[in-house]
Amino acid sequence: MLTGAAGFLGSHVAEALLARGDEVVGVDNFDPFYDRAVKQANLAGPRTHARFRLVEADVRDAAALARELTAETVVVHLAARAGVRPSIQDPALYAQVNVEGTVQVLEAMRASGARRLVFGGSSSVYGDSAPVPFREDWPAVEPISPYAATKRAGELWCATYVHLFAFRAMSLRFFTIYGPRQRPDLAIHRFTRLIAEGKPVPFFGDGSSERDYTYVDDTVQGVLAAVDWTGTAAPGFEIVNLGESETTRLDRLVVLIAGALKRSATLERRPPQPGDVQRTCADIGKARALLGYRPATTVEDGIPRFVRWYEETYGRQT
Q1: What's the pLDDT score for residue 318?
Q2: Backbone angles phi, psi at 29, to 5 degrees
Q3: Please, which residues have CB within 8 angstroms of residue 129's CB and are 6 or more apart in sequence?
Q4: Domain boundaries, position 32
């Protein structure tokens, strides 16, 4: 079972699972955070497979989830209300979807006897106080956004079910994933669209903020390895970073996108945004050791790939 199957990462994970021969039940409620048509298009590939079935349901509905589960099911729980900045506007909704939703997934698993879980975590849990590069043994008790707090809470709930009900679970802390089908609201997609259309790019801060941008194919490699890890040993819980272990400044990112588009960028400078961390950078030693994780795509290669997909999908602006 793959929750959030119609999303950016979820649809890529669905394709990869199907490509290696797995049967996939995709769950998505088509939340209106962005256009349903975009999510429907994300699933164009999986829906051609006889081994894929889509269930339109909300993760807060444990009964609906439990009907689709058996004791042999592996759950990859990627569904979440996304976005640091929107979470500041509606913290209660984020708590309902990301925390209550995760608890209901766990409850559906408990009721059905399913015990193998991969949880979609976030690098946002490190906040601004963690030493760089971020290591999984950092306490992560100082989140600076409601979104980050909900993701850390989800990890704690997973750990509790491992302890009480003999689950085997792994939380994957994702680091700014990008690539084809990236959500329209995320920076790389939004910047590409604005530069392509000749519009100014909203530029928060002085450009010195840094992110560990991770190409979607590398993240998917880690997710599939985590699925396999859940079936290899006794009950237990691990938290693992999935990043590139490299940082790129915001001003450098704009240069790379503009260069790939062969256009110039106009910046609309704005003050830093509340809730945004200054830097993310993953220590991926644990991912290498536990999952054989080997990220292979630098931003110098990944950004042109994304721009090619964008122009093939939306057309090159003249």
Answers
A1: 63
A2: -105, 5
A3: 142
A4: 2-179+214-245
Contact, 281 vs 132, CB < 8 A? Answer: yes
Q: Is residue 298 part of a domain?
A: no
pTM above 0.90, yes or no: yes
> What is the pLDDT confidence band of residue 67, given thresholds at 50, 70 and 90?
very high
* 272 found inside a domain: no
CATH number of the domain enclosing 163: 3.40.50.720
Q: Which residue type occupies 21?
A: G
The token pair that represents 198 in the structure block: 């000749």
What gap in Å lies between CA 149 and CA 183, rounded to an integer? 22
The 10s digit of each residue's pLDDT in 199-255 is 999 988 889 999 999 999 999 999 999 999 999 888 999 999 999 989 999 999 999
Residue ranges of the alpha helices (H) in the chain?
8-19, 36-42, 62-66, 84-89, 91-94, 101-112, 146-165, 187-196, 216-229, 250-261, 285-291, 299-314
First to last CA, the chain: 43
Alpha-carbon Rg for the chain, nearest whole angstrom, is: 19
Decide if 190 contacts 253 (C-beta within 8 A): no
Residue 297's alpha-carbon distances to 50, 124, 255, 257, 280, in angstroms, are 31, 22, 18, 16, 17
Task: Report phi then psi at 249, rounded to 5.
Answer: -70, 155
Q: Which active-site residues does the annotation give?
A: 147
Q: Would 117 be classed as within a structural domain?
A: yes
Residue 264 lies in a domain: no
Q: How many domains does the chain divide into?
A: 1
